[in-house]
Structures are given as structure tokens and as C-alpha cells.
Design a protein that fits this description.
It comes from Nitrosomonas communis. By secondary structure, the protein is α+β, with helices and mostly antiparallel strands. The chain is 37% helix and 18% strand. It starts with 12 loop residues before the first strand and ends in a 40-residue tail after the last helix. The structure holds a DNA duplex.
DNA sequence: TCTGGGGTCCTAGGACCC
DNA sequence: TCTGGGGTCCTAGGACCC
């Protein structure tokens, strides 16, 4: 069979990935950075979250704290830049827009990665590497960004192909595993460590290695049923995907988020409740903005605070609390007001806080599989009932002793002296601080 | 002394991704 | 001195139901 015609029925995926994305974005607007060793730093200039090839060649790992790099930076003239996420988001949109010209089936996987579904487009793009080079050329020309393209009959294989395209200069940025002769295919897989496979992280690598599975080829040769028995359904799926049986579909419609997190490490340690509350208010309002953008409502906010775990000499403390909203809402003022009960309850004086954040949960009730205390639909009955239960309890035991922390169908409440998260209470004002400990 | 089985709902925690 | 900020999915196990 000729390899340059793709049968209509055959699934084919492409993964397009921008090289060193944040660094490449910075270079687009400052050509002096080209060919220079460059890193982009995280919030507070804490860690290197993007590295140019020159920096990678120096052995700098992703996420290395900047203070550990300063000496190396001085030696090699590494340029360090603070991150500019507005810029990166804008550049990302431009790339995705260009990619939509190549296929109607697009899954934006992350800020710098995109899957294209090419099934049925064989007559339009008979040779995958051809479309790959066209994509590279056009994105380079229109945005200056360098990309690599990988093709495979499953998403996992397309990811792997992209990895090969990046590492092996001979591929010129485009690798097609779908038409590669079998011996060559196996040969490549045998050179790649199992940890490079999408979905195999540090822990799984260790366990796979212990079982004698060290290369991608070895993983591919392992019977999926055995993988399932030993590692679970996720690894089984990976096994099939590596064998060219597609288990992961293209997700063209981005589903609304099931939780929205807003959190930050502080540049300086914070010890006052006032400052903590201000941060929590600002986190909540930015999370609420994202909530409204996806047309969701939220019925519980988790607030968390913690000290700096890296300072082992300090007294450590971390705590969190889930604050319910009886009526689900996306109104910033309501959400902030509710969220502010969190720090009030869990704050302990005498600690130096390093990080805080909020998590909006119970959002988009149709998509949430676990039921929260107050759901948007039918909130009336249930929360009214709960309120009355709580009132009775409060009368009976006194307001000092009762908080509702767990609710299910046939067990409407439980008393809890010392709460664990999530702590649900319908009467924030009156639950004494001690119970939030 | 004997001490079910199948199902649901919920949570905590672990692992992974970029 | 200085150590990111988002997310997802899966599993085990407890509580509860009939």
C-alpha cells in the first residue's frame, strides 16, 4: 500500500507545540535576545519557568529557583525576564488562529500546544510532513515563533512524534510516526525513556522501571491487560494508545472549569490578618471574573493559607476552610464577603504566611459530579431545611458547640467539635473561631 | 455463635499535565 | 535573603441504603 495517501477512515492527529514558548514570545518583541541564554521567571521572580535552548544546554532544570541560578547566570550572561502573561496569551491566540486554517478540528491543549484532528483531510494534505512544514513556515512568518509538529494515529503518538521532532535535528521540526516504517518506528521507541510518554511522570517511571519497562518500546510491547492489573486504567489506555489504538478523543469544545483557583506566593512574608484578608479579597475577585466569563455560578469557596514550607526553622502552619454560599452566585461582592470568613476563622497570629488562595468549587452545577451542600437547583428546600436543623441544634447545644460539616441524603448533619475541611456551616458569624482550627 | 451483597454518594489523597 | 500557578482524573475507603 502506498504510504502517501491517508485513507479517509484512519484517525490522524497532529500536535503543534511552540518551542520554549515564553522565551520565544519575549524574543519576538526583543530580537536582541535571539541566540542569547534567556530564562523567564515566575511570580516574584521566584523560579525559571521557561528556558531558551542555550540555558537548557547548561543543564538548568524547569522550575529551578532563580537564586540558585544567579552564579551560573553571571558566568554565562543569562538574561532573566519577569513573566508577562498578557503577552503570552495574545501570542497564543495568534498561533491558534493560524492553526484553524489547517483543520476544522482543533483542540487547544495548553497555552502553547494544540492538537489538530486530520482524519478525513487526506485529500487536502496527502503528506503529513508536508502540512507540518507548511505550518512551521507560516507560524514562523506570521508570529516569528518556532514550532515543532508531530503526527501520529493517536494523541499519545502525536505527542511522542513531537518530542522526537524537537530532540532530533534531522527531522527538521516535523516527525510523522504514522507513516514511518515499522523497524524505524521501533528503533526510535527503543531510544526513548518511558518517562517521556505523555502521562508517565516521575512516580510511574520508577514503578515501570522496577518492573523492567524502561523504554517506550518496552511499554508498547507490554500487554495492556497487564498494565491495567498492575497500574490501573490510565496506564492501560496509554498502552493502547502506543499501539495505535486511539482511546483519547480530540476535545474541540473546551468544557467549563470545575474549579477555579486563584492563589499567589507573597513576595514578603505576611503576618497580619488585615493583609491576608486583602489578598483573599483580591484573589476572590479575580476568580469571580473567570467564573463569570464561563457563565458559571459558585456555591462554595475554599480559602487556604500557609507558611513557607522551605523555611524549616520556622513554625509551620497551614489550614483551609470551605465557606458555602446559600445561594449560588457569581457576584464579586457576594463572593468576597463570603470568602472573607475564611481568613477570619483560620488565621492564627504569630506565624509568617507565605501563600494564600481561594478555590471556587461547586461551580457549573450541571457538570459537577459530586453534590455540594447547597446546589443551585433545589437549593430552596434543602438549605431551608438545613437552616432549621442548625437553628434547633444551636438552641439545644448552644451556639458555641455546633457547626454542620457534612451533609448527605440520609444523614443531614453531623456535629463536629474540631472541623476538618471542608467545613460547611450555615451561620458563619456565630461559629466560634476555635472550631475552624 | 453466627455476622450478606450490591449499590450510591462523598472525601481525601495521589498522580499527572503544562 | 530568595523556592510558580493553574488544572484534571482516578482510586480507595467509609458511611449509608435496601
Amino acid at each position: 500500500m502506498s504510504t502517501d495517501i491517508i485513507p479517509i477512515s484512519r484517525p490522524l492527529f497532529a500536535l503543534v507545540d511552540v518551542n520554549n514558548f515564553y522565551v520565544s514570545c519575549e524574543r519576538a518583541f526583543n530580537p536582541d535576545l535571539v541566540n542569547q541564554p534567556v530564562v523567564v521567571l515566575s511570580n516574584n521572580d521566584g523560579c525559571a519557568v521557561a528556558r531558551s535552548n542555550e540555558v537548557k544546554a547548561l543543564g538548568v532544570k524547569m522550575g529551578t529557583p532563580w537564586f540558585q541560578l544567579k552564579e551560573l547566570a553571571k558566568q554565562h550572561g543569562i538574561v532573566a525576564l519577569s513573566s508577562n502573561y498578557t503577552l503570552y496569551g495574545d501570542m497564543s491566540n495568534r498561533v491558534m488562529t493560524i492553526l484553524r486554517d489547517f483543520s476544522p478540528h482543533v483542540e487547544v491543549y495548553s497555552i502553547d500546544e494544540c492538537f489538530l484532528g486530520l482524519q478525513g483531510l487526506g485529500s487536502l494534505w496527502p503528506i503529513p510532513t508536508g502540512i507540518g512544514q507548511t505550518i512551521r513556515h507560516r507560524i514562523r512568518q506570521w508570529t516569528t515563533l518556532p514550532v515543532c509538529v508531530g503526527f501520529g494515529t493517536t494523541k499519545t503518538l502525536a505527542k511522542l512524534a513531537n518530542h522526537i521532532a524537537k530532540k532530533q535535528p534531522s527531522f527538521n521540526g516535523v516527525c510523522d510516526l504514522s507513516t514511518m516504517p515499522h523497524e524505524q518506528f521501533e528503533a526510535w521507541l527503543s531510544t526513548i525513556e518511558v518517562g517521556e510518554v505523555w502521562g508517565v511522570g516521575r512516580q510511574l517511571s520508577l514503578h515501570l522501571n522496577a518492573a523492567g519497562i524502561k523504554t517506550v518500546q518496552a511499554l508498547r510491547a507490554t500487554p495492556p491487560a497487564w498494565l491495567r492489573a498492575k497500574f490501573g486504567v490510565v496506564m492501560e489506555r496509554l498502552g493502547y494508545e502506543l499501539r495505535g489504538i486511539s482511546c483519547l478523543a480530540l476535545e474541540e469544545l473546551s468544557a467549563p472549569k470545575k474549579q477555579i483557583i486563584s492563589s499567589r506566593s507573597f513576595g514578603q512574608l505576611i503576618d497580619s490578618l488585615t493583609e491576608l484578608s486583602e489578598s483573599v479579597a483580591s484573589f476572590t475577585s479575580s476568580a469571580a471574573e473567570r467564573l463569570r466569563r464561563q457563565n458559571s455560578v459558585c456555591n462554595a469557596i475554599q480559602v487556604f493559607i500557609q507558611t513557607n514550607p522551605f523555611r524549616e526553622q520556622d513554625k509551620q502552619y497551614s489550614n483551609c476552610m470551605t465557606v458555602p454560599l446559600p445561594n449560588a452566585s457569581s457576584d464579586t461582592r457576594l463572593l468576597v464577603r463570603a470568602a472573607l470568613f475564611g481568613p477570619k476563622r483560620i488565621y492564627r497570629p504569630g506565624y509568617a504566611y507565605k501563600k494564600a488562595g481561594v478555590i471556587l468549587t461547586g461551580i457549573d452545577s450541571a457538570a459537577v459530579h459530586q453534590e455540594s451542600l447547597f446546589t443551585l437547583h433545589g437549593a430552596g428546600n434543602r438549605s431551608a431545611k438545613l437552616m432549621s436543623v442548625l437553628d434547633q441544634l444551636n438552641q439545644r447545644y448552644g451556639r458555641e458547640t455546633v457547626a454542620i460539616f457534612s451533609v448527605s441524603k440520609n444523614k443531614p448533619w453531623m456535629m463536629q467539635q474540631k472541623n476538618r475541611t471542608p467545613c460547611y456551616t450555615t451561620n458563619w458569624q456565630d461559629v466560634p473561631i476555635a472550631y475552624a482550627h
